[in-house]
Amino acid sequence: MDRRSFVKKVGLGSAAAVAAATINAPYVWPKGQTYQWRMVTTWPPQMPVLQTGAERFAKRVEEASEGRLKIQVYAGGELVPPLGVFDAVSQGTVECGSSASYYWAGKSPAAQWFSAVPFGFNPQGINAWFYSGGGLQLWEEVYAPFNVVPRPQGNTGVQMGGWFNRKIETIGDFKGLKMRIPGLGGKVVAKAGGTVVLLAGGEIYTSLERGVIDATEWVGPLHDLRMGFYQAAKYYYYPGWHEPGTTLEVIFNKKAYESLPKDLQALLDAVAMETNLWSLCEFEAQNGAALETLVKEHKVQLVRFPDQVLDELRKLADETIEEEANKDPMARKVHEAFKAFKAKLGPWGTVSEKAYYDLIATKIGA
Q1: Residue 251 φ/ψ region, left for φ over 0, alpha for ψ in the -120 to 50 degree band, beta for the rest
Q2: What are the residues whose beta carbons fall under 8 Å from the beta carbon of 39, sequence distance 6 or more?
Q3: Are 142 and 108 within 8 A, CB to CB?
């Protein structure tokens, strides 16, 4: 064999060996720069699904990034006031926060549409709007002037109508009623003659017990049992006309979010979507047992709002939402998009979800 052939043969063999070794070698993730973030929330410490969901989000981000992005989570009041979350994220005091957008109506009236609209979407509908109907893009547009990037991070499911220390038999019973209820639902109650009080979660029980408020809504049986509202109010009303599928948010400071590598940005988005699904499943899985405990063990008086009251509330809600939409062009833009998507979704929901649930409905206590 001549020298040229020998060299050629050895070279090919070496290349093949290197290729084989490369294919068989374990992949090593190039970790690169690490990031330390802080998250503030509006939720009380250890509040199931809300605060624990924010903590789960942070843990999942750290796991999925293999430690490249770590997020320290602070409950409401531990680092900033519960209702100071948006400002803290907007100003860059912290990198991210967990809350609900209707708390920020004072920043932008349009923000309210991304949490809950009275007689609006259930969880399935609002998620369809966000992910497949342009809702998330509108949300990003609303928050952009504040240097904030939003993502859906949870959903409570259809909420309860609230705890009351007086019966609601006609729409007139809302007159003079002092009620803790945020968002567009609160504005409807105000239009019905009630006095709306906005309180953070940790302040509600004491206010209800002391008579500072006559009624409150919060979320549903899982939380309401834990909060002990049954010890401070007589009547537990349903359905939650005001919040039929409330979205929770994770918000990122825009500069902090955009300073991350693209893969970490995508990871945050993916974990937010995962947490959105997880939280809804947690509520759906646990609310039933909690409701049974409230009714059977604590003898809670479970009451349905009369049909006439719900009809009146719907009319007031339509008026209220139109008034809020007229407050600025962005609110009107969001409202029109919301209405258009609801009109498309409604007929399908009637012949699918509604028809099926009517078929299998089980009476409470059966």
Answers
A1: beta
A2: 54, 57, 58, 71, 72, 73, 74, 94, 95, 96, 97, 98, 250
A3: yes
Give which of 178, 118, 181, 161 is closest to 319, Cα–Cα. Answer: 118
What does pTM read for this prediction? 0.87
Query: Looking at the chain, how many residues does it have?
Result: 366
Q: In this structure, are residues 218 and 230 in contact, taking their beta carbons and an 8 Å threshold?
A: no
The DSSP secondary structure of 279-336, one letter per residue, reads HHHHHHHHHHHHHHIIIIIS--EEEEPPHHHHHHHHHHHHHHHHHHHTTSHHHHHHHH
For 108-162, the pLDDT digits (tens) are 999 999 999 999 999 999 999 999 999 999 999 999 999 999 999 999 999 999 9
**Rg of the chain taking only CA atoms, in angstroms:** 25
E-assigned strands of the chain? 35-41, 69-74, 96-99, 148-155, 162-164, 178-180, 195-197, 215-216, 235-238, 247-253, 301-304
Residue 149: φ, ψ to 5°: -110, 120
Amino acid at residue number 328: D
Tokens linked to 45: 């410490």
Helices and strands in the chain, H and E counts:
13, 11
Residue for token pair 């989570």: 73
pLDDT, one tens digit per residue, over 22-65 is 445 544 455 679 999 999 999 999 999 999 999 999 999 999 99
CA nearest neighbour of 215 among 184, 181, 182, 185: 181
The C-alpha atoms of residue 190 and residue 181 are separated, in whole angstroms, by: 10
